[in-house]
Design brief:
Keywords: Hydrolase, Metal-binding, Metalloprotease, Protease, Zinc. The chain has 352 residues and is α+β, with helices and mostly antiparallel strands. Helices cover 18% and strands 32% of the residues. The chain has helices spanning 36-47, 119-131, 156-166, 216-225, 265-274, 318-325; strands spanning 21-27, 52-56, 65-70, 80-87, 90-99, 105-107, 110-112, 196-204, 210-213, 229-239, 245-253, 259-262, 278-288, 298-306, 312-315, 333-343.
Length: 352
């Protein structure tokens, strides 16, 4: 069973799973200028995961997707609405309306509502509708009908759905002119290496911690015995151990419930000497010692630390890191820099 729900129509005249071409979009005069960067980032996120591109145009006349900002129902209710028209199975237009009653305002480099909802995620959700995705209730996703604090970027469900509509991106590092690119971590041009292992990600609703494992048996045990652990799909892939890989070590902090991962033997040894609450659990998985060995699928993860909850998070891609740095996951997150380099999940892993 597919882990996503499609609305029916799509952009482009081809069959499902083929390119959607370039879709134009525009904002009308009701949309504050501060909204634009979040809308651009949302389009960049979708185009990074599917064979469809977007072009911002000045006029709403003739634009494929149009944005407006007007009152819907007030604070913390309906954040946005998307309506569309289509002919046969092909979109002809889509209109996205943000609820002006949410009290949107600039907060640093991003826009949030009075209740702290990040506009980037609302735009990501509504654009998903404008591209052909319906609400999904089977697990964490941007396309959930109710936003979840644990979802800060596209999940395996969202990516599976958008690729069912438009296929995988033909050139993941390219975004249509008019849409700013989020910095990419891809390096090299070699083909996808063999011997990749899915890394499964869970979110612990009790502690706010994310947990990662390559063990299918451990994954199943968690699903059966730990109801507070919410499964979020395959976050990334890791290589088999070899000459070009390095160990990633796993710790469990008994004081906070945090799981901590590092590829640094020096950091591992320092933790063992100075942090008695950190319980060493051994090697979790492998990472690439040289990012170029991962080829075009290289994914260099950012490590974040929350100064309030004292948990760590490892952004699964550049878009997720961008979202966290721009407030999508709430306050208190400090970007600690590069964690290690892994590989993007393959198509077969996304809904595993």
């Amino acid at each position: 069973m597919a882990a996503y729900v499609l609305e029916g129509p799509r952009w482009g005249t081809g069959a499902a799973g083929t390119s959607g071409g370039t879709v134009t979009w525009s904002i009308d005069s009701s949309v504050p200028a501060a909204f634009v960067s979040d809308i651009q980032a949302a389009f960049a996120d979708w185009s990074a995961h599917a064979n469809i591109s977007f072009q911002q145009v000045a006029s709403t006349a003739g634009a494929g997707i149009r944005f407006s900002d007007s009152y819907i129902d007030g604070l913390d209710r309906t954040l946005g609405v998307t309506n569309y028209t289509y002919s046969g199975r092909t979109f002809t237009s889509a209109n996205v309306t943000f609820d002006s009653g949410e009290g949107w305002h600039a907060s640093g480099s991003h826009v949030v509502s009075t209740d702290g909802v990040n506009l980037f995620l609302v735009a990501l959700h509504e654009i998903g509708h404008a591209l052909g995705l319906d609400h999904y209730n089977g697990g964490p996703a941007v396309m959930n009908p109710v936003m979840s604090p644990s979802v800060t970027d596209l999940t395996g469900s969202d990516i599976g759905g958008i690729q069912a509509l438009y296929g995988a991106p033909s050139n993941p590092s390219t975004v249509a002119s008019g849409t700013p690119t989020t910095p990419t971590t891809s390096q090299g041009t070699s083909s996808t290496p063999s011997g990749l292992n899915a890394v499964y990600r869970f979110f612990d609703t009790n502690t706010g911690d994310h947990f990662y494992t390559t063990s299918a048996a451990e994954k199943q045990q968690i699903l059966q015995t730990l109801p507070s652990y919410h499964y979020e799909g395959a976050a990334w892939a890791t290589p088999d151990k070899g000459a070009g890989t390095e160990d990633v070590f796993r710790f469990y902090d008994t004081a906070t419930g945090d799981h901590f991962f590092t590829n640094s033997a020096a950091e591992r040894d320092q933790i063992l000497k100075t942090l008695p609450s950190y319980h060493y659990e051994g090697v979790a998985f492998e990472a690439y010692a040289n990012p170029s060995a991962a080829g075009a699928g290289a994914d260099t993860l950012e490590r974040f630390y929350n100064t309030t909850t004292h948990v760590h998070h490892y952004a699964a891609n550049a878009q997720e890191a961008y979202a966290i740095n721009h407030g999508a996951a709430g306050a208190g997150w400090v970007d600690e820099g590069v964690a290690f380099t892994v590989h993007t999940p393959t198509d077969g892993m996304l809904n595993a």
